[in-house]
Amino acid sequence: MSEKYRVIVQLKSGVLDVQGKAIESSLGELGVDTVSDVRVGRVVEFSASSGDDEIKKLCDELFSNPVIEDYTIEKIASEKIASERITS
Amino acid sequence: MKVGLVLFPGTNCDHDVVVASNDLFGADPEVISSRSRELPANLDLLFLPGGFSYGDYLRAGAMAKVSPIMKSVKEFGEKGGKIVGICNGFQILCEAGLLPGVLLPNKTTRFISRPVTLKVENSETYLTNSLSKGDLITAPIAHFEGNYFAAPEVIKELEENNQVLFRYCSSEGEVNHEDPNCNPNGSANSIAGITNAKGNILGFMPHPERAIGVGVPLDNPAYERGASRSELFSYQG
């Protein structure tokens, strides 16, 4: 049976986020000076009937680069009533 | 000498590598599709040229590293086969774990396309042994993700093991990690290229294959030692 997953990939803290910095400077153009520390990540959603181990392997080997990125995996309940964080 | 190059979907610097290989080594590279499962037998040197393999989707080089050919490329590298990754090729080698570290977006947040000066740090590799340590060479860079990054202990090991191949510098040879005039993209320790521990796998962001014949300024001491313009990189065993 297929489950829906959402993987959020983010840069490790301490790694320079060039996109985040560029966005922060654009905020100034919008007249916003109350927002800082912008960091941009990536979301990958998919359906899978594999086990948690295989999904973690996918995250370690393809969806993220472990040198610079961390990820969280969430199982998205089909009714969208709740989501269960299964690993981080 | 048998030379090969791997063509991924989106690789676009293969033609320059073909010209450079013919010019420098007298060898016409065999073009290998990334969909092949085996490298040709008896390969002496394999190029991974630059470009935008898989559109840089996910991360530059990330999808290329799972192409069918990469298993054979990894085995070739692990057995001591000579691999040269240029720009996107360097990114692919890092993603595949054949070289340490990663190429992050340039610190300037811009795609940089201009000639840069490089200081030769390691003149013992098969690609740089016609040069001397400290020589300055010119080559264009053209990249958005050229900012070399690795954990501090990895950088320390690269420096101590003589694995830094080229360093970005000013046209006068000044190395200054914080000055964009010296280090265009913010790379750690101004690193423009590295080798693996054994020295058979090389990776660098600049494109010397786009500077054949113009890469070395005419007043460079290399010419006094008899190097001709096309011997900027000369394979000597």
**Relative helix content of chain B:** 10-25%
The side-by-side strand order for the widest beta sheet of chain B comes to 2-1-3-4-11-10-9-6-7
Unreliable stretches of chain B (pLDDT < 50, length at least 5) are: 226-232
* Strand order in space, largest sheet of chain A: 2-1-3-4
User: Largest beta sheet of chain A, briefly?
Assistant: 4 strands, antiparallel
Assembly type of the chains comes to: heterodimer
Query: What separation lies between the terminal Cα atoms of chain B?
Result: 10 Å
Helical stretch count of chain B? 5
Secondary-structure element order of chain A, as H and E?
EHEHEE
What class, by secondary structure content of chain A?
A: alpha+beta
Give your account of this protein's structure.
- The complex is a heterodimer of chains A (88) and B (237).
- Chain A has 88 residues and is an alpha+beta fold.
- Chain A has helices at 18-29, 52-63; strands at residues 3-11, 42-48, 69-76, 83-87.
- Chain A has 2 helices and 4 strands.
- A 4-stranded antiparallel sheet of chain A has the order 2-1-3-4, covered by helices on one side.
- The mean pLDDT of chain A is 87.
- Chain B is an alpha/beta fold and 237 residues long.
- Helix content of chain B is 18%, strand content 24%.
- Chain B contains 5 helices and 11 strands; from the N terminus they run βαββαβαββββαβββα.
- Chain B starts with a strand and ends in a 13-residue tail after the last helix.
- Classes of the chains: A alpha+beta (88), B alpha/beta (237).
- At the A-B interface, helix 1 and helix 2 of A face loops of B.
